[in-house]
Amino acid sequence: MTSQLITSNSTSNVHKFTVQQYELMLEAGVFAESDRLELINGEIRVMSPIGRKHAVCVAKATKNFERKLGDRTIIWTQNPILLSNYFQPRPDLAILKLRDDFYAEALPTPDDILLLIEVADSTIAYDRDVKSSLYAANGVPEMWLFDVNKRVVEGYSQPSASGYKRMQRYDKNDTLVMVAFPDIVFNWEEIF
Prior knowledge:
CATH class of the largest domain: Alpha Beta
Largest sheet: 6 strands, mixed
CATH topology of the largest domain: tt1808, chain A
Structural class: alpha+beta
Radius of gyration: 16 Å
Number of helices: 4
Strand order of the largest sheet: 4-5-6-7-8-9
Shape: globular
Number of domains: 2
Order of helices and strands: EHEEHEEEHEEEEEH
Distance between the termini: 22 Å
Helix content: 10-25%
């Protein structure tokens, strides 16, 4: 299942929401608290439900990042980040620079992000083709895409306005290293 788009009833006009408008709608209770939503290019998108393989992968990755990075970062799990005035996604994991307020004063921005991770079972094409391009264009330094069905990781780095310039595929028995922490090694088995 791909993400669904919430639009007006008019087929000729699509209203683009700003982050401020979107947050006001959330605060006003326009959407149910249980709704899984994110703002992508000014469009409010309904995120796919989380399946068992997806949930297990996120939990396992979170545990391993916490164990290996300790107090060096903040692990931000399925929470919003602010990339532009029209882009407030909810990546599965965001590895953030350590900040004393734990981002209570403001959502993380590209300057705060060390690595974003998207975990996909039914949304692989959307995460690869849409979200990764937007992450790169907004200056997110690195993104990993976990495909829980094929059990592979795609690592993206060197962001540019047209997308990431570098992509590396990781399979069983491979190791992964974050650009921000080249001294920390993750084994493929620690993710899957």
